[in-house]
Each structure stands twice: as C-alpha cells, then as structure tokens.
Amino acid sequence: MDTQFIVSLAMILATFALYIGIAVLNRAKGTSEFYVAGRGVPPLFNGMAIGADWMSAASFIGMAGTIMMLGYDGLAYIMGWTGGYLLLTFLLAPQLRKSGSYTVPEFIGDRYKSKAALIIAAICTMIISFTYSIGQLSGSGVVIGRLFEIDARLGTMIGVVIIAIYAAFGGMKGITWTQVAQYLVLIIAYLVPVIFMSLQITGNPLPWLSYGEVVSKLGELDRELGLSEYFAPFEKGSKWQFLALMFTLMAGTAGLPHVIARFYTVSTMKAARWSGAWALLFIGLLYFSAPAYAAFSRFILMTQVAGSKIAELPAWTKTWVDTGLLKVADSSADGILQWNELIIANDIVVMATPEIANLGIFVIGLVAAGAMAAALSTAGGLLIAISSAFAHDIYYRIIKPTATDKQRLNVGRITIVVATLLAGLVALNPPGAITQIVAWAFAIATGTFFPALVLGVWWKRSNSKGLISGLLVGLGVTLAYIFAAKYGGFTILGIIDTGAGVFGAIAAFATNIIVSLSTKPPSQEIQDAVINLRYPEQMTYKDGEVYMED
Amino acid sequence: MVFHKTSLQKRFRKLKNRGDLVRKIEKSKADAYFREKNTYMVIYFIIWAIVSYGVVLIAEPLSDVYFNGFPLHYFMGAQGALAVFIILLFVNAIVGDKIDKKYGIDHNKNELIGRGTTSNH
Fold first, then answer.
1. Which residues in chain A are closer than 8 Å to B75, comparing Cβ atoms?
2. Nearest by CB: A270 against B12, B34, B97
3. Helix, strand or coil, per DSSP, at residue A113
4. If exposure means fewest CB atoms within 10 Å of the residue's CB, which of A179, A358, A377, A409 is most exposed?
5. Which residue ranges in chain A fall short of pLDDT 50?
6. B10 band by pLDDT with thresholds 50, 70 and 90
7. Can you tell me where the transmembrane regions are (chain B) (predicted)?
C-alpha cells in the first residue's frame, strides 16, 4: 500500500463519516419530514443542497473531459445544464410550490384529477430517476475501483451499500444537510486543482480570468500540428445538434423530478425563487471552472507530456494505462510520444490531471473524495424521488389510502433498498457510457414532464386526456428517436440521440394541446385552481374573485 | 392540497369564517400583479435566449473577435451566458420581492399559509 492510497482512503472515509454522522443526527421521524424536510430549509442552504443533488458524477468526473475532447461543441453542456434553472425557477418552481404537492406525480394527479395520469407520471418519474441513478452508481464504482485498485464492479457494490443505508435511514432531511456538506466537499475538491494549475501555468490564482490566454495558445498549438483549432465551432457535430442538445439539457433540468422535489422543501414561492438563484450561483462555481480545468489539462498534456521520450514517461501514465482508459502508442516508432499518439478517455481527465500536474497526494485524495460526494449525493436525491413516486404516489394514493405513516415510511425505505440494488445490478454492466445514460434521462424528462408541467401550470384548458396522450406520445417519440439515432443511424439535421428531447417535447406539446382542445374542458374547480397558482399564497382565487388574507 | 375539491372548499370556508382577516380585492389588481410578473419574465427569457441560442447561431463570425484572451463565441459559451443566467435569477428574486411589496404581500403571512397547505397530509 502506497502513501497515496492511504491518504485518499483516509480523506474519503473522513468525508463519509461526516455525511453519515449528519444523516444519523437528523434521522427522519414522520413522513412529512422524510420527503420534504418539513418544508423549512432556508434558501441559501437549499441552494447548496440543490447544487449537490444536481452535480453528479457526470458533472464532476465527466464534464471537463468532455469539453477537452469536444472543444467548443462541449460547451453545450455548460449552457444547457445551467440555463435550465431559468425555465425551472420562472415557469415552474414557485407555482408547484404553491400547489402544496409533495411530488411531481402528485401534482399531475391532482391537477388533472386523474388516477391514470398519477400512475403514468409516477412511472415516468421512476424511469427517469432510475436511468439517471445507473450512471451515478457506475460512476462511483469507477472511482472506488480505481482508488482501491479493485474491480470496478466490486466498487459499484460498495457504493450501493453505502447509498442504500443513508438514503433509507436519513430520508430527505438527513440528505438536505448531508448534501450541504457534500456540496462544500465537492466544490473545494474541484476548485483546488484548477487554482493550483492556474498558478503553475499562468502565475494567476484566478483561473477564470487567466485561462483565456491558454485557450488561444491551444488554438496555436493545434494550428502548428495541422489540427482544427480547439475553440473552432461545430467541428464535432452540426450546429443543430449543438442547439438540440442544449435545449434538451435545459428543458430536462426543468422536468427532472428529483430536482423539482427540492423546491417543495422551501416554505414559500418567494423562497422558491431565491433557492433557484442561490442554486445556480453555487452550481456556477463548478461550471465556470470546468472549461478552465479542460483547457489546463489539455495544455499540460500537449506541452509537458507530448514530446517526451516514451521510455521516460512519468509514473502516473502506467497506473492509468493499466486501467485501459489511457493509451500511449508509439505509432511513428521514433521513441517520442506525439500528441496524436496519446489517447485519453473523457472520464479520467478530472481524476488524472492532479497526478499529471504533480499537485501532491492531498489534492489527489481530495479530488477522489469530491468525486464520491458528487456521485453519492445525486444518487441519494434520485432514490428519494423513486421512493416517493412508489410509496407516496402509487402505494398511498392508489393501493392503500388507509396506510399509516409508519407503513408508508417502511414502504419508502424498502423501495429505496430495492431500487438501489436493481440500479446497482444494471450498473455492473451498463448499457452505455455514463454521460450517454445521463443524457437519455434528460431527453426523457424533456419529452414527458417538461411539456406536462408547463401546460399544467400555465394553461387551464389542458385536460387529463390531453395530458395522458401527451405524456405517452412524448415518451414514445423520445425513446424511438434515441434508439433510431443510436442503433439505426437515423438523424434529422445531424441531431443524434443526446438531442432527442427536442422532438419528444414538440410532439408532446402538440399532442397535449390538440387532444385537450378536441375534448371537454376540465371542470371549473380545476380551472380555478390553475388560476390560483398565479398569485402568491396570500391571495386565493375563487369563482372569479380574488381574496386576500391580511 | 389546493387541487382537492374538498380541501379548496374547506380552506375557503375557513377563510370566510375568519371573516375579518379576509377581504375581497379587485380582480383587476390581482391580474395587474400577474401581468407585471409575466412582463418581467418575458424580458428575462428574451435575454436568456439571446445569450445562449442567439450566440450559438452566430458563433462563426464571433470567433474572430477576442475578449480577455478568448475568442468571443467561446467566452460566451464558457462564462458569458452562465454569468447572465445567474444575474437574471438574482434580478428576478429581487424584483419579485419588490413587486410583492408593491401589492402588499406579506412574506411572513405567506410562510404561515405555506406551512398550512401541507397539514392535510
């Protein structure tokens, strides 16, 4: 066992002890506490918890690597995964908060007064969150496996056990405060290496201001090698793919049940808008830094690694070559490693760069602990969403309305354990790359919940027939496009499977509107309740009049 | 849950019974509140679309312009759009509070009512 292993392990264990300690201290007691943390989380902390919930293994481990590989085209992820917070905060969060629902399916079931709608929405929630959590668990498996130098599958199993325990026993309340801690760990773990690299390369401790020069230099290096410039637009995909991917990620953000659920934990509509603002600020810290991380990594690889003698490569290359995620092949047989002879997988850029840049064992251990925080915190939020869709929406609302708090809580806990085990099983042999799986989850959310919620909140004429057909058509079109693009090579305007949500959303909006208009309008009661969502809590709309409580 | 037929009526009866605490306000005043909020929202969304979708559409010509060492299209994708998003969200939160104040909305009261909406669960 080398020093690096001991330091990394110690840092991960220390942060785990912190999260579990907080979860145990806050162990949930009643149902209301379990799902929405008793609705009393202040916006600033809720913003951090949203940030931890939001920033998954894909953001922390995968995104900088993706940007490094795709150049400008990778920035669709930066804008897409942040711009969605405007859709969410302006169009949906305050209104959903006023509705007083616990979960997204419950809102849909009550808004449309339809049990069928509730069940379909609960199933969509479970599909989206489950797909997403597969990516998280396999991400945690890669980190644990790499760290302990064990098989990634064994790493995944360790991750499954840990996440199942604290999600099942802590509930959302445990997780809210745990996630505040996780946010702090992961943001520090992400910023420290970027700041160190900025100092190393530019002498400026503020990477956000200094890396513009590095980006321009990368373009020069590419020109010398006869490659297309790093920052040249639309080299890796069409402009339409860029726009479609960006839209899918934005609308998917606004339709993700586990993110929306966070907005049910605030006390008022006002708190919902402030939570959205704080959340994006905290998320932005990482998203501002990811392109800098990518640029510095690429610069170090191009100037310090490429061009060195194959026989004299530093020790870090061997460990990563052994994982199969890094390839150095001296195809020109000149004994020198050329830039085009170095093949590096997206997913190791964030993990390997601190080693490459020689930032020291503590920074490397910190990054490992941060990556685990990112994967586990998101998995926690996802599992709560699956658990509440089943225990609250299907079991309590449909199967057994007389269930006691205790029974519901137990069903919720069992659901978490079962879902974690199932997701873990799939993660042992994942159906695609982590980022790909995550992008599918976004596409499905864009094709189902985004249109359903926007029309449900803003258009009182939308009825249950329109909603149900819209949900089913959106789900069908999205899934069909993903499969046709991925396996059949079918594309429209060069839009591939990751941009599928745009077609699902168009189909779902059109179906919902056309079917609603050609069938009976919803009852006056429902239409009044939709109008009621326009106003703050103090105002109540009833029979064409507005009443105000003072 | 305001969508439950019974709870909406129950809640309304409760409001009536407390009589002196509830007053009817002009529907036009409530609508003005709603319109004012929406006007700002439309402005925010126009800015949001210009800095993200708009800039991507004209990325090629922008790549000849440099800002702080970056080609401008790259700067907007990596930092500019995100900075504008964050600013818009905080502007929305602050302006939203101002509009609430202008229409006499009392935040503490809302908090009490907001907590109340979960009591039937």
1. 212
2. B97
3. coil
4. A358
5. 38
6. low
7. 39-59, 71-95
Gap between the Cα atoms of A178 and A24, Å rounded: 10
Q: Are A447 and A505 in contact (CB under 8 A)?
A: yes
What is the per-residue pLDDT for A35?
54
Q: What is the model's pLDDT at position B120? A: 32
- For chain B positions 8-27, those within 8 Å of chain A (CB to CB) are 8, 11-12, 15, 21-27
**A73: amino acid identity, one letter:** D
CA distance A256 to A249: 10
Q: What kind and span of H or E run contains A283?
A: helix A269-300
Q: Which of B23, B74, B115 sits opposite A215 (nearest CB)?
A: B74
Question: CB B17: neighbour CB atoms within 10 A?
Answer: 9
3-state secondary structure A510-543: HHHHHHHHCCCCCCHHHHHHHHHCCCCCCEEEEC
Q: Which of B77, B79, B105 sits opposite A72 (nearest CB)?
A: B77
Note the ipTM here.
0.90
Q: How far apart are CA B78 and CA A288, in angstroms?
A: 7
Q: Answer yes or no: is pLDDT of B1 > 50.
A: no
What is the mean predicted confidence (pLDDT) over B29-39? 91
pLDDT at B14: 54
User: What would be the CATH architecture of the domain defined by A3-541?
Assistant: Up-down Bundle (1.20)
Report the half-sphere exposure of A63 (CA within 13 A, side-chain side).
28
Say what the alpha-carbon torsion angle B73, B74, B78, B83 is, to the nearest 10 degrees: -40
Residue to substitute from A39, A211, A549, interface B, most B β-carbons within 10 A: A549
pLDDT at B118: 43
Reading the block at residue A36, the tokens are: 């929405």
Asked if A273 lies within 8 A of B92 by C-beta distance, the reply is yes
Whole-angstrom CA distances from A502 to A291, A498, B22 are: 25, 10, 45
Structure tokens that stand for A199 in this block: 């100092």
d(C-alpha A545, C-alpha B25), whole Å: 8
CB contact under 8 A, B68 and A537: no
